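Appendix B. Chain record.
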Amino acid sequence: MLAYTTLGTHDLARAAEFYDAVLAELGAKRFMEEPDYYVAWGNSEHGAGLGITYPFNKEAATVGNGTMVALAATSREQVDRLYAKAIELGGTDEGAPGQRWPGFYAAYFRDLDGNKLNCCYMGE
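Structure tokens predicted for this chain:
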């Protein structure tokens, strides 16, 4: 159902460096970019993508209250690695990796612009 999600940024180069490293933990690579405007990543040409962009209306990028992007992991260990990479790169903790309820293991963090993300593994 989901085609792609974009998050606003104040500094495209800095955000792109952050997401290059964080999304590499999921096997995602850049698949689209327009210099000085946006960068997008995915791990399949048919799957959902994640992009960062300067807002089209030229206004300041802001964080949506209640907005969160969830990234699917293939294991608990992958959740742990992605979360650790995000924090190492300057992301901020919003909930360390852990079992949230049976079958749902997740970690929460904010990127360098304050956007909230989750990395989760659904399974035992």
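Further analysis of this model is presented in Appendix C.
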